[in-house]
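Troubleshooting entry. Yesterday's outputs looked truncated, so today I'm pasting the complete records for two proteins to confirm everything comes through intact. If either block looks cut off, that's the bug. Protein one:
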Amino acid sequence: MYFSNHLIHSLRIKNQKTHGIFMQFKASISSLKVAWRKDPKLDQAIENDKKCNQCSRIVKEVLNEPGQVIPLHYLEKRRDRLRLTVKIKTFLDLNPGLFDLYMDRVRPKSEPVTFVRPSERLRQFLEEEKRIFVDNEFLLVSKLCKLLMMSKDKVVSADKLVQVKREFGFPNDFLVNLVPKYQEYFKLIGEPGEGRSFLQLVKWNPEFAKSVIEVRAEEESRLTGIRTRPAFNWKLPPGFFIRKEVREWIRDWMELPYISPYADVSHLDQSSREMEKRNVGVFHELLSLSLYKRIPIPILGKFSDEYRFSNAFSNVFTRHSGIFYTSLKCGIKTAMLREAYKDGELIERDPLLEIKDEFLKLLAEGHREKAERLRLQREMVQEDMKMMALSNNDLDYDKCEKELLEE
């Protein structure tokens, strides 16, 4: 259900007693308790990407090695850290086409061992990945500017940005290749990797200072000719209910003016409803900027200082369960944007997801070739069995003919 004007009107408080209950919850946001409920379709969206993410981790591990090669037994020792449940050799057999195996020596006089290196097909994919990054360079710049523009001092730890590059689709080398190209927007302070490096915003671009919600309201106003107020979409899955007093609190909270995540909120009290409105706006914008419209909550927590999140910020996602969903899939809490999904599938895909599409094609090609090799092997075995059967029949015929002659 969406919170339309009609629905908001229908939820208005009818009497003084109910108003008293509302005022109690208005006084303390932390008093609002909303039970968590599983959403299988959104959980499945995370499960669907599990295998692709696992393959990406292994590829990244090999590519980060000197010369982009690594002995197979070295990679096997890292299996737990890579969260791999099967042996590396089994993984390579299950995902052909990613790597080549060859024999070489770790040291000049040591015995040859099996090494792993990227396949030619994987190298072609990496070249295609570079092209996609180039084609979407302006999108990457706008994302990076927006992350800085939402922060309280327009400065974010460079090391933290590196930690979330996968969530937002930044290339591995964005600090050394992308940032220096746009000195009108960015200034890198310190050396990345030393824990004291920061990325600072140099220029404020008003075009970037519009949230997804504000852009949506502007577009709706343009199409209808009626001024539309920026507002969150509130939608719960079928069968999900929240308590009456919480609905009443949400109704009143939804009527508060929308606060842009790019607005200065230094004057707001951390425990106020207005600050809650702003925080929800920031989380909504962060998830909207992410590739999959979802981010693990521990990763969001790393930016508490930069974005003024409270220690109990994760409660926002369950308190506003019509806007967000907290998935517990894969043993980690992940905040997801409900409106971004329909039946567990993304409605609007980030242009950078073309990289994932190409990677899935690479995996699919390897699987098809493996299936074709297995088919040919089965046919050869069947053909050999037929030949053996024919040979045995010929032997039996010769034996029978000899016995008849002897009689």
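Protein two, checking that the full record survives here as well:
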Amino acid sequence: MSQNPPDLRPDLARARISETRRDGQPTIGMVSLGCPKALVDSERILTRLRAEGYGISADYGGADAVIVNTCGFLDSAKAESLDAIGEALAENGRVIVTGCLGAEPEYITGAHPKVLAVTGPHQYEQVLDAVHGAVPPAPDPFVDLLPSTGISLTPRHYSYLKISEGCNHACKFCIIPDMRGKLASRPHKAVLREAEKLVEAGVRELLVISQDTSAYGTDWKDRDEKAPILSLARDLGQLGAWVRLHYVYPYPHVRELVPMMTDLMATGGVLPYLDIPFQHAHPDTLRRMARPAAAARTLDEIAAWRAACPDLALRSTFIVGYPGETEAEFQTLLDWLDEAQLDRVGCFKYENVDGARSNALPDHVPEEVKQDRWDRFMKKAQAISEARLEAKVGKRMQVIVDLVEEDAATCRTMHDAPEIDGNLFIDEGFEGLSAGDIVTVEVDEAGEYDLWGRLA
């Protein structure tokens, strides 16, 4: 039984899958680094390759070539990507690089000149061309069968559903628009069709992701709705699976999303969960970030959301040690956190990123001050989490089973996303459970980030 660590970073996740190889079948390995949006890119690449007859190798040694899908958002993530490329080169020798860091090909080839090719983010055709050049396909249409849902790098009971690419924001600390471009939303019918196929294949939870989920469809010039995310969420909520919304900016129309979360049934619906990247609370800090600076009105919005949906869980991420952040500004953030009482919180220490406008700001915060503020922030967030979880003891909740081991079943409540939030453990009477089951439990114990319960 494994507990979810509070500092787990989804941008350092890696995914590998295994598959039986037929005689003579060319085989590709994959390491997927970065956020869930990059994971979806990896799934699309592997699905295309599998449709062309390639096998998927579980290890470097068994592959004819390896694709490394990189993250390039933070310097620490860039270093992780370079390490992964180096590891793949050492163990396999034939490596194709793609993803966000691929937008800086000289950075990669300067460290690893022996890579076969470098492509940028969501450049699927270029990746396929690079694979074809390194390992020609040899399909066998009588043997090579592709699952109707494609290749998945997540457990079969949940799946990420990417609804758009890019971002129209111009946050000074972020280079995502430079790497992935402006907002480009997928058609409503295409998203819904993909979601329907996933649910038909047994997916019980759809995790909706994008760079700015609230802005979905606002790039369509001929749209009929002011906020197309509302009709998309409504339609997804009718499919019979849990629908979890990530990366929701607090635009006014979010107030119309929240009422969809009040009538959740066991068979599915839009979960009472919002993942909103607030980043900070002091108006001066937010202005230096080039983000909306109305933190006080944000508290009013949170109160309105919770009035409409009392069971709503809020998750967010914050940056401490941003250039120019004073002790008073940081204290405002702590005070705001006290008022907001967010359920799940992540925190990053500010890092310079090549190409980000924040690098040129004055008054950069010393590393030891960043660490002190991170420690104090996490202590505050932990205390809030512990108190909010303690209030759940004695209550009945629906949970989805992620893993059944010898000593316990690891589950998540409607308030917990995989990998980044907490777990609920069932350590008695769990033997008949399987991954993907949705069951009702009574909570009998709470920790700092996790819950324990028994089947009700």
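Both blocks look complete. Sanity check on protein two: The chain is about 30% helix and 20% strand.
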